[in-house]
Design brief:
CATH class of the largest domain: Alpha Beta
Number of strands: 27
CATH topology of the largest domain: Nucleotidyltransferase, domain 5
Shape: globular
Number of helices: 21
CATH architecture of the largest domain: 2-Layer Sandwich
Strand content: 25-35%
Radius of gyration: 35 Å
CATH superfamily of the largest domain: Ribonuclease H-like superfamily/Ribonuclease H
């Protein structure tokens, strides 16, 4: 490489800040050819060997590597620095030890509080561990790795000897005492941190409110998150917030024009670009470098819908320059977007910041709503508002009543009660919960016509182009009529779904477009199948899926369809409780019924018939000879821990209701916890006095039944359980 070339002659796309540019321009020459290489079809890998005129901070080099890797989209970007031999000092050994981790050395944890001595030929490293710890470190050639790094980086030859420090035994005893103390103080420390965090959050909210002037509502503020609109000159709706930048005050960096800012929800499309963003600071963390001469800041900002972390590296003496950037302050920032190498998230290098105003939302409706389904930050991953802020917002908006329904817990109640008392408002709080409901009155038979075990029934299966009975089509219907343990008739047809069969479905079922192109269309095929079935009870595995497709087709083409049906999945869970999975092939193997062409409707139907005969035999051995007794027996033995869950809203009417809700919450955690605290239907009925039961959201049992195209009679039966929908 020509001696007149510099770093930026090679890497022209990289545009660092002044400190990094100055460092890279100081490189006198490159120790060997700059290597940029990639294998065909693989990401770019880069290695650069550089001779620096003097030693520099390793963390600065790491930052340059990260930024270059992001700019060039490289899999790796490695700078191998070489410093003058005279710049080497044993005080830099901690930095070399950290670098050794990347070369496979065992240093993490072992070299904390290590002591280093250099006699000009040998560096003695004394670590606070006894012989076992020293042997472990030496067994993987850690000393040799350290010697090689010193030689490569400084051109200095030293022998590295790792031994126990004089106080190793004392430090071992101290570690044991410290561990006991930590365990003893764990609960107390957790409580202290929680209290301190709550007090700090309250202080910051109060400081923000006192610092902000009152604004009237601006017409047109969007209630949607993830959006961006310019409401007027200098007023922007961003995410879930509205900002006024007309009186922006510079609080860090150099002057910049806010212009048209980039919404936080769109920053992923601007990586490696310098952008202007608006947000409110929610976190500021500063970490000193090992030498104490610089501070690395991580500053989190959010617009209420999206967020991003800003990175800023300052010299220690410049620390006061960011005093104006603190939690609760709304800012417009100028920053360069990058991808963080550790977590892969988008982050930004902060260059300048201005303090701006955040406008608060108001509710101008003449008749206020009463929200009956609302979460606080006590609902993990489902809400951000604190109980305290919830009350303040409802009072500020003039609401007369509001319900609180956190997921599976009542932890918000004390804070809400205290804040309501403090506010002096006549706001009515409706205490409630969004519970995890399981119908432990389990059943496998759906419909009122229940045949005898010896009657004729139809076992069937369908294949489809996908999972949705609204957007996908049927490709095959297979069925058999059974009576007294025998198959007496069969039905099988391909179906032309009038849509492409996806390749992954073809791999699963072996059915492709050519096989169905001349087959009957859906209306003809479904009519033929229902004529074959007559009014007999239908039997299917995971019947809700198959019945859903048949019901959608029947509704679309005006075909009468109201057959009772049996789902063999819940029936298998009752008959074969020893099985962990109840897939068709798993049950077939369990009963020793041999191989079959799984995911072909005709073969699945025949195999399911054989399985049903086996389950009938087991039921008879328990004294169960008809489907009425099947329904009763399954309800008696249903396990709430194994049943599917739906959401449910429970609201409190009075003091008795509050007591009963606490009973339900306690039992859901103590008796019925599996992944979530479950509330069985039978237990809710026991403690129903003083409570109002609602059908919840799309994850509730009623909406789920509607979306899966359950029959009207079944939907009405489900709806009867609720007080309101």
């Amino acid at each position: 490489m020509a001696g007149t070339m510099n770093f930026f002659d090679i890497f022209k796309k990289y545009d660092p800040d002044e400190e990094k540019r100055e460092l890279l321009l100081s490189i006198r020459d490159f120790g060997r050819q700059c290597v940029k290489y990639t294998k065909s079809g693989e990401p770019l890998r880069v290695e650069v060997s550089c001779n620096f005129p003097q030693r520099c901070d390793a963390e600065l080099i790491y930052e340059i590597e990260d930024e270059c890797r992001a700019v060039y989209g490289a899999l790796s970007f490695k700078i191998m620095p070489h410093f003058p031999p005279e710049s080497f000092s044993v005080k830099y050994m901690r930095e070399i030890v950290c670098e050794a981790v990347f070369a496979g050395a065992v240093t993490q944890g072992f070299f904390n509080n290590a002591q280093y001595d250099d006699d000009g030929e040998t560096i003695y490293v004394r670590i606070p561990f006894l012989s076992d710890g020293v042997s472990m470190v030496n067994s993987v050639n850690t000393g040799t790795i350290l010697e090689n790094i010193i030689k490569s980086r400084y051109g200095v030859s030293r022998r590295v000897v790792i031994t126990s420090s004089d106080d190793a035994e004392a430090r071992r005893e101290e570690r044991q005492r410290s561990l006991k103390a930590i365990l003893a103080e764990a609960d107390a420390e957790s409580a202290r941190r929680a209290k301190a965090a709550a007090e700090e959050a309250a202080r910051l909210r109060k400081a923000e409110e006192e610092d902000k002037p009152e604004f009237k509502r601006i017409s047109g503020i969007s209630p949607l998150t993830g959006t961006f609109r310019s409401l007027s000159d200098g007023v922007y709706s961003v995410g879930a917030s509205t900002y006024d930048v007309r009186d922006a005050e510079l609080i860090y960096g150099s002057e910049f024009d806010i212009g048209a800012p980039t919404p936080l929800s769109e920053v992923t499309s601007h990586v490696n670009s310098t952008v202007i963003m608006l947000g409110t600071v929610f976190e500021v963390n500063g970490k000193e470098s090992r030498n104490g001469d610089t501070i690395q800041y991580n500053i989190g900002i959010s617009d209420g819908a999206s967020g991003i972390y800003l990175k800023l590296r300052l010299k220690a003496e410049d620390n006061a320059s960011v005093a104006g950037i603190k939690p609760g302050v709304s800012v417009a920032v100028q920053a360069k977007l990058l991808v963080d190498k550790f977590d892969g998230e988008i982050c930004a290098n902060l260059r300048s910041a201005k303090k701006i105003s955040k406008l608060t939302r108001v509710d101008n409706a003449e008749e206020k709503r009463v929200e009956l389904h609302l979460h606080t930050n006590m609902s993990a991953m489902d809400a951000l508002i604190t109980p305290e802020e919830l009350v303040k917002t409802a009072v500020k908006w003039g609401h007369k009543a509001i319900a609180v329904t956190d997921h599976g817990n009542v932890q918000a109640y004390p804070e809400i009660m205290l804040e309501l008392e403090k506010s002096g408002s006549d706001l009515k709080i409706i205490y409630g919960i969004e519970g995890y409901f399981v119908n432990d009155t389990a059943r496998a038979v759906f419909g009122n016509k229940r045949p005898a075990f010896s009657d004729e029934m139809v076992v069937f299966d369908i294949e489809t182009t996908g999972l949705s009975n609204r957007t996908c089509g049927i490709t095959e219907i297979g069925a058999v009529i059974i009576k007294d343990g025998e198959i007496i008739d069969t039905f099988n047809t391909f179906v032309n779904p009038e849509m492409h069969i996806p390749e992954e479905i073809t791999k699963l079922t072996s059915i492709d477009d050519d096989m169905v192109k001349d087959a009957p269309l859906t209306e003809e095929a479904v009519r033929a199948f229902l004529d074959f079935a007559g009014d007999r009870m239908l039997i299917a595995h995971n019947a809700g899926f198959d019945i859903g497709f048949i019901r959608v087709a029947a509704e679309k083409y005006g075909i009468e369809f109201g057959n009772t049906y049996l789902d063999t999945v819940p029936l298998s869970k009752y008959v074969n409780p020893e099985l962990k999975k109840h897939k068709l092939d798993t049950i077939a193997e369990y009963y020793g019924l041999g191989d079959f062409n799984h995911h072909r409707a005709c073969d699945d139907a025949a195999m399911l018939a054989a399985i049903f005969f086996e389950m009938q035999s087991r039921l008879r051995s328990e004294g169960i000879y008809d489907f009425d007794r099947v329904v009763d027996a399954m309800s008696e033995r249903s396990d709430p821990l194994k049943l599917p869950m739906n959401h449910i809203i429970i609201l409190v009417k009075n003091a008795d209701g509050l007591k009963n809700l606490y009973q339900l919450v306690s039992r859901s955690y103590l008796d019925f916890y599996r992944r979530n605290p479950r509330m069985p239907k039978s237990v809710i009925e026991r403690y129903r006095d003083g409570l109002i039961i609602g059908s919840a959201c799309e994850s509730g049992g009623l909406c789920s039944a509607v979306l899966t195209v359950t029959s009207d009679s079944e939907i009405e039966e489900i709806a009867e359980f609720y007080d309101y929908l």
